[in-house]
Write a structure and sequence with these properties.
This protein is α/β, with parallel strands linked by helices and 315 residues long. The protein is built from nine helices and 13 strands.
Amino acid sequence: MKKKIFIDGSEGTTGLRIFERFEGRDDIELLKISSDLRKDPGEIRKFINASDITFLCLPDAAAREAVSFVENNDVILIDTSTAHRTEAGWAYGYPELSPAHREAIRTGKRIAVPGCHATGFITLVYPLTAAGILPKDYPVSSFSLTGYSGGGKKMIAEYEGSTRDDELNSPRQYGLSQMHKHLKEMKAITGLAKEPLFSPIVADYYSGMLVSVPLYADLLNGVQTPASIRELYAKHFEGEPFIKVMPLGAEADSRNFLGSNNCSGWDGIEIFVTGNDDRILVSSRFDNLGKGASGAAIQCLNIVLGCEETRGLHL
């Protein structure tokens, strides 16, 4: 029997990408709300409760309101907003972190999809804290370079408009107050004692993301080298089709540069380990609209449905 799927917020960037990924699938039935009623609370309530699974592709406040509309106890919610990522009772939608994370998604009725920057950061830091290599009181810092699609419709229009400020021609650092909305989950999911010092940067290209975390080897537990850290990632993510741990020295293939848009349109994530025996740099590269948003949401759906996790995704 086909599962009935409703996308609340289907006209936003993430909602549209989720909708596109359902093309050709014969195991679901999409419930489509009328465009002129897509913000009507009564109509939204009706569609949520008529669905088996509802995706919430909404601002935080609207996502919380949508949860309050649930009257059918069998409805499963997959929320792409920031609202519930650290809330009790919500599974964190990153199955590769541990068997417990995957099982919580498989059996849960409330699933929170990770944020894009958080996905890249947690990919790098969680295995290190879980293995006891990175002390939880380590003063972690991180840079994240992203395409402008991560800012949603408003930022996309700003960059793609016929008239725009010359400032947009160069990368721009933001989150300067150190109050970025992803910080809460970055700290909570990795178990760090403090939120990281986080510097996101948006640049003039559509999609793709590169997140880096620098590490002093002598502040890590045990004797660590780029080779040992790379081996840790390879073991932690062994058998995971969405995560590709790159060989040491792979950056030489691109003249020792790491581009941030190389994974645009791809739903996996690459991990690079570079640096030297004193200072190690770990980096993750992916599509902020793929594994960083809609791709991750579809992967969670596939786990809930019990089908191949890669179904409808590009790897």
